[in-house]
Amino acid sequence: DARDAGGTPDGSASEDRLVGRGIDRREDAELLTGRATYTDDISADAAHLAFVRSAVGHGRVESIDASEAEEMAGVLGVYTWDDVDASPSPGVLPIRTESLDCEVPGHPVLARDRVRYEGQPIAAVVAEDRYVARDAVEAVHVEYGTRPAVVDPAEATEDGAPTLYEGVPDNVALDAELGDETTTEEAFAAADRVVELDLVNNRLVASALEPRAALARYDADRDYFTVELTSQSPHGHRRKLSETLGLDEEQVRVVVPRVGGGFGHKGHHHPGEAMAAWCARELDRSVKWTATRSENYREGAHARDHRTTAAIAVDDDGTVRGLRVDTRAAVGGYGLGGGASMPGWYGRLLSSQYRIPAIYCRTRAVFTNTAPVHSYRGAGRPEAIYVTERLMDAAADELGIDPVELRRRNLIEPDEFPYETAVGASYDSGDYETALDEALDAIGYGEARERAGEPGDDGRYRGVGVACFTESTGGGFERGVVRVRRDGSVAVYAGTHSHGQGHETTYAQLVADELGVPYDDVEVAEGDTDDTADGTGTFGSRSTITGGSAVVESARDVLRAARGVATDLLGVDAADVVSEGGAFRVVGRPEHSVSFADVACAAAEAENESGDESDAGIAFEASTRYEPDGTAYAFGTHTALVAVDAETGAVEIERYVAVDDCGERVNPTIVEGQVHGGVAQGIGQARSEGAVYGDDGRLLTDSMLSYALPRASSLPDIETRATVTPSPRNPLGVKGIGEAGTIAAPPTVVSAVADALSSFGIAHVDMPLTEENVLAAIREVDGG
Ligand code: MCN
């Protein structure tokens, strides 16, 4: 049992509990040795789907000539919108257009007559194998009436900008407000100083190891689809697929095998999945689609891409009086959840860790001739924290107050929780100053501050950066099922779906503790819509809070039922029975006991006698639909030391310290791994990543040669520490951790680089901090 071996108790775990131990992830052996089955590994004698994609960023499709492709040996079909239109399927991806301020027709699975981003699917080709399919794609000839494109969300709202939809002259899909404009104006008028910043939050694309893929099978007799695909949300995908295909959800089963990373973009519904299913029905044959790496970059979905003008109102003593934020965020050619849900996930986090009495945020979600924008690890929260933290540094600079001191003066205090922010967030719990001090202590802030802004012996300028953050985690409902078989083994099912997070390990820790059974007796399965009646999925660092609590509640129900059976078997009063160490014992008579497995066997026998065959072999089962009692707000402080070469613009991160608080930690090693991954991605955004479009809407960064992921050599050792402030809003006291690193790292690194360049009079440099961009910033203040 992992209680005796393999675990590395970190001091917070009690002797016999698994929760709190850094047990090795049980899924890793399979993942690391290449034995895991991913969607593309399943062949099922499938035909292959590939797409003819728009070669232009904006235009009309004048003609499509597929005759040459149709004649090619091995080609089974070439389809355009007219074919989809003539079928019973609506063929339009459900992208919550109803939540937008304007009427737009939605994202057709194949272009109707207009293309609004380079890479938009125009025709679908199905062939016997993937090579023939790709050759046939090359043989389809499309003529375009090219239109001027607009790719920058700020430019898209200016007069005279090209428009994507006739009925939306300013390209604004959604114009939303949060906070109180009048109070904020009053706060600004009364403040000693106002500091303003223009900020760019660069456009990112998830670079998961596994590109998106789908394998659809169709059973004509039952009019029933089974779709295996790469998803973070099996039930979400079932709902969206059924809407796109015009089916009842009962006609679709979604099965999600191993997923090689998601980072947000596998929660989004892409044309490829829907068309694989549509073609499977059309051809009465299994059809598989696997995106190439370039296709992944072309229609991502993408994320971030904000242009923001923000201001902070402060008094000379460092008291923050207000924030004013005006953001234009790209949603791409077709309005999507990521853009449209921005006021909630973005604006609502702007108060960060601070007591800010007045905040006003205007957010415009803007159509641009770019790939659909959805979410990327953090989804709105990194953008918000970036704004607030950059403003804190700018205000400190203006006031001549140490940036840490300015933050400290405005922190919400531990006894102020629950705390309502000016943008309507209700923070559950926090001890911000302790985490801040831990970070400062770890990095040696005092000494670092003394060296900051000055060239060292090697001629490079040192800087220290700090960012404090909060993060909304959890939300919505989740389903958790616990089933005990007659041999006492336990199967756990949840509506979430791990795509790298380690749920198989952490859910097993939770359930084994509740039931008091050996860890190895608990199996965890996710990803089959047949296993749980409903479910929400894995995103927004919600799984532990919602899925973890759901399986724990079910385990508690199971334990109650088992205790009843044990009481009967032991022939004593219920009050005299305790469960411990995988057995039920009579109080005061420890030798008088019955094992969990014997109880399960007895319960299964009784079930058999009742004659219900569907339950054969099942001793106990409980299913819980759990919804937390409000959002849990994780938090922390990250800090970094950098060295900047002012001759070349090269940035080196010399040290990086992350102090995170995600409440009780189920598995501190997994938590640490999540922080490492998130920080690596956050550093990627800060230093090198960015999807770049030409003015004509052509994507210039369509491969890993041009989209610069961080490499091991550009990452520092990531030092992690933790504080533990439980959340009162769920039974586990947990908060999420999956996205903390991507939220904290960008402002931390930019803060450190700006600090290093302070003697040049530089207060801010936009991401990514490539050598080119850093040099340009130095040259600009140097007067060229
Ligand atoms: N955990 C814990 N104690 C806590 C909180 C979490 O032990 N207090 C553990 C959990 O049990 C789980 C892991 O840490 O095994 C992450 O849990 P949680 O914070 O609840 O987040 P989710 O499982 O919901 O994961 C979502 C989050 C998001 S939104 C993205 S994007 C993301 C991420 O997780 N994408 C990832 N981490 C990723 N990690 C990998 N390897 N690959 C991705 O695509």
From TrEMBL:
Pfam families: Ald_Xan_dh_C, MoCoBD_1, MoCoBD_2. Residues 1-23 are annotated as: Disordered. Residues 14-23 have a biased composition (Basic and acidic residues). Gene3D superfamilies: Aldehyde oxidase/xanthine dehydrogenase, a/b hammerhead (3.90.1170.50), Aldehyde oxidase/xanthine dehydrogenase, molybdopterin binding domain (3.30.365.10). Keywords: Molybdenum, Oxidoreductase. Residues 33-148 form the Aldehyde oxidase/xanthine dehydrogenase a/b hammerhead domain. SMART domains: Ald_Xan_dh_C. The keyword Oxidoreductase applies. InterPro entries: Ald_Oxase/Xan_DH_a/b, Ald_Oxase/Xan_DH_a/b_sf, Ald_Oxase/xanthine_DH-like, AldOxase/xan_DH_MoCoBD1, AldOxase/xan_DH_MoCoBD2, AldOxase/xan_DH_Mopterin-bd_sf. It comes from the Archaea. This is Xanthine dehydrogenase family protein molybdopterin-binding subunit. It comes from Halogeometricum salsisoli.
